[in-house]
């Protein structure tokens, strides 16, 4: 094992193959590597049969290393930093006793994977279903999701997106207060539970996206400051000091997060990483961290013959995030498009407060469908400045769109879903706009059957002062929206329990009808070539001042056109399309979907026909072979 170096001897080089954290080598041998440049001494405190203190050898760049024998998986340990205290491992693989407890050694080689033939699926085939592990099932674990995977496959989903699962305090949290970027949450089932879920997803042809948070750490349980300059006060974020991505010692901070990303995709076989709020990653270096991250992930994917993607969340409307590096971009694979959501939400609800003040016109929805970003160097009333750049040349498959997601529901004061305020016709209309777009669609858990439970913001901190600070901060988040309601106590267990899904609803009444409707829409997207073709070039979009949209999409000789009526009255639209006949693929207002009854006229139409539409409805006509029954 390594011992302390003599003060007069230069630090050793970091072993070439060493990875941060513990690496179990088998036969009772484990290698430990930690970056602690501010520490005068670091020792490994092993909590096995008898407590052992093992001095670690100091290496260059502030690393400390030890190769230990007679230590086995499951052994718990701390790092003793001398005057800086006894701390868990920043790169801990498992925190079985929570954020303040000891770290534990994992043997990743012991899991019996069954998905060796899995290589991933093309990004253009992604139909994303976002879920929170804690509320998706009653038991709130990774393994409890497995029996529901066939349900998701039957719906037409091709990828599940897990909200963050990195270890957070106690057992209730949105996930964005994670303190250990390598350690899956203990109450969810830890590393073994996550691997079981991923394995079962792959066996069913489902990709797995993991939401990771690299812009901040939670306010409880993160001890990174005891080890080194992980943070900087040069920039401020909503969560406090920014992560040090471009200051002194930032190379090693970058290494920490890049190793985290590679760890998830290698040891857990994650297919894509969704990087939370990249606008909170402050980095003015010539080669930004996000570019290095995308290079590392894509390099690993190429070397291992896998399809692995990096997806960004950003409110910057900056197309450079998904532009190729050779043209000055970051090389990320796709990003969430908030403008699409805001355009759709404002049209459907009529809300005009907060950032919805910038939206609400049919022309905004037209542009969102045509280009992606509505605000591309355009003045924003909400921001009181020009915002964004053009996404006109961004390929459609590089944008993710949705009518709801965890932020747009959970960051409302009462966590209310669209199902709590919109009519059944408008819920179908929302689904139609998202699923008939040329972009990658994302569904938020439960929207496919109009879940009635809210999705609140919830925490389970242990420090009273912190709990009170979060309560007060939550109350102050919503003034610009003028919602008028005081949000529920985020610390209360009841707030969390009210957010649990009622999955049984999907088999009852209008909930069942909406679920069948979503299933039908996803089948249309899968079977009609123009809808499978994610292209903004092979599409035209036109809006009508009365609140209607005409969308035509094509692929080779196949065509579809869609009419959307956002108005509260009937609309008759003259359709000028190529020679038919055009076959009705779906009418959202049909009585078979519990609508007022189809008013679209002919089941088959030719060029020059008029189509009459019910309020808040849409129709799709197809000039292609369609085997499924239309309605």
SSE topology sketch:
Layout: E1 21-26, E2 29-35, E3 43-47, E4 51-55, E5 57-58, E6 63-69, E7 76-80, E8 86-87, E9 103-104, E10 128-131, H1 133-136, H2 142-145, H3 149-155, E11 159-162, E12 166-167, E13 180-184, H4 190-203, E14 207-212, E15 231-237, E16 240-243, H5 250-267, E17 272-275, H6 289-303, E18 309-312, E19 334-336, H7 338-349, H8 362-370, E20 378-380, E21 385-387, E22 399-401, H9 406-410, H10 424-435, E23 440-444, H11 464-475, H12 493-498, H13 509-527, H14 529-532, E24 539-544, E25 548-555, E26 558-565, E27 571-574, E28 582-587, E29 604-605, E30 610-613, E31 617-623
Parallel strand pairs: 10-11, 10-23, 11-14, 14-17, 17-18, 18-19, 19-22, 22-23
Antiparallel strand pairs: 1-2, 2-6, 3-4, 3-7, 5-6, 7-8, 7-9, 12-13, 15-16, 20-21, 24-25, 25-26, 26-31, 27-30, 28-29, 28-31
Helix pairs in contact: 5-6, 7-8, 10-13
Give structural notes.
The protein is α/β, with parallel strands linked by helices. The chain has 3 domains: 21-110, Immunoglobulin-like (Sandwich); 127-521, Alpha-Beta Barrel (TIM Barrel), CATH 3.20.20; 539-623, Immunoglobulin-like. It has 14 helices and 31 strands. An 8-stranded parallel β-barrel has the order 10-11-14-17-18-19-22-23, surrounded by 4 helices. A 6-stranded antiparallel sheet has the order 24-25-26-31-28-29. A hairpin with a 3-residue loop joins strand 24 (539-544) and strand 25 (548-555). Helix 5 (250-267) runs parallel beside helix 6 (289-303), helix 7 packs antiparallel against helix 8 (362-370) and helix 10 runs parallel beside helix 13. The longest helix is centred in the last third of the chain and has 19 residues, at 509-527. Residues 1-8 and 626-630 have low confidence and may be disordered.
């Amino acid at each position: 094992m390594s011992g302390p170096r003599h003060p007069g001897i230069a630090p050793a080089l970091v072993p070439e193959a060493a990875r941060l954290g513990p690496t179990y080598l088998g036969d009772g041998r484990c290698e430990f590597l930690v970056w602690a440049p501010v520490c005068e001494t670091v020792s490994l405190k092993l909590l096995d049969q008898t407590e052992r203190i093992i001095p670690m050898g100091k290496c260059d760049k502030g690393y400390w290393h030890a190769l230990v024998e007679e230590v086995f998986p499951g052994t718990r340990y701390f790092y003793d930093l001398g005057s800086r205290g006894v701390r868990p491992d920043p790169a801990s693989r498992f925190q079985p006793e929570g954020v303040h407890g000891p770290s534990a050694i994992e043997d990743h080689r012991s899991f019996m994977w069954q998905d060796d033939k899995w290589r991933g699926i093309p990004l253009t085939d992604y139909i994303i279903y976002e879920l929170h592990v804690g509320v998706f099932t009653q038991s709130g674990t990774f393994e409890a999701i497995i029996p529901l995977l066939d349900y998701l496959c039957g719906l037409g989903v091709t990828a599940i997106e897990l909200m963050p699962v990195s270890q957070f305090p106690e057992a209730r949290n949105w996930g964005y207060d994670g303190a250990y970027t390598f350690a899956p949450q203990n109450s969810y089932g830890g590393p073994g539970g996550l691997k079981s879920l991923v394995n079962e997803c792959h066996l069913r042809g489902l990709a797995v996206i993991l939401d990771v948070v690299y812009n901040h750490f939670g306010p409880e349980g993160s001890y990174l400051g005891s080890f080194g300059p992980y943070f900087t006060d040069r920039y401020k974020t909503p969560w406090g000091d920014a992560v040090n991505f471009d200051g002194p010692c930032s190379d090693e901070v970058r290494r920490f997060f890049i190793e985290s990303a590679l760890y998830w995709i290698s040891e857990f076989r994650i297919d894509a990483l969704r990087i939370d709020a990249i606008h909170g990653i402050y980095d003015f270096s010539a080669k930004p961290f996000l570019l290095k991250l995308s290079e590392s992930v894509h390099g690993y994917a190429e070397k291992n013959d896998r399809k692995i993607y990096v997806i960004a969340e950003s409110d910057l409307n900056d197309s450079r995030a998904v532009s190729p590096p050779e043209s000055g971009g970051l090389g990320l694979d796709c990003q969430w498009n908030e403008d699409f959501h805001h355009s759709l939400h404002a049209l459907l609800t009529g809300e005009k407060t907060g950032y919805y003040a910038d939206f609400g016109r049919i022309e905004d929805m037209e542009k969102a469908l045509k280009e992606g970003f509505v605000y591309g160097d355009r003045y924003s009333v909400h921001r009181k400045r020009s915002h964004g750049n053009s996404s006109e040349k961004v390929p459609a498959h590089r944008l993710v769109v949705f009518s709801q997601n965890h932020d747009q529901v959970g960051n409302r004061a009462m966590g209310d879903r669209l199902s709590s305020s919109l009519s059944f016709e408008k819920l179908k209309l929302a689904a139609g706009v998202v699923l008939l777009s040329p972009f990658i669609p994302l569904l938020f858990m439960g929207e496919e059957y109009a879940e009635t439970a809210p999705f609140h913001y919830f925490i389970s901190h242990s420090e009273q002062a912190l709990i009170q600070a979060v309560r007060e901060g939550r109350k102050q988040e919503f003034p610009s929206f003028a919602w008028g309601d005081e949000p529920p106590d985020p610390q209360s267990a009841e707030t969390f329990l009210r957010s649990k899904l009622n999955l049984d609803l999907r088999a009852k009444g209008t909930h069942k009808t909406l679920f069948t409707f979503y299933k039908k829409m996803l089948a249309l997207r899968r079977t009609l070539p123009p809808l499978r073709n994610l292209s903004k070039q092979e599409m035209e979009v036109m809006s009508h001042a009365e609140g209607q949209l005409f969308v035509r999409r094509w692929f080779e000789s196949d065509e579809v056109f869609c009419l959307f009526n956002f108005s509260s009255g009937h609309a008759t639209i003259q359709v000028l399309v190529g020679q038919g006949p055009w076959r009705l693929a779906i009418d959202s207002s049909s009585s078979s979907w519990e609508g007022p009854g189809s008013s679209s006229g002919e089941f088959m139409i030719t060029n020059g026909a008029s189509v009459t539409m019910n309020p808040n409805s849409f129709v799709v006509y197809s000039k292609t072979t369609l085997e499924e029954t239309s309605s």
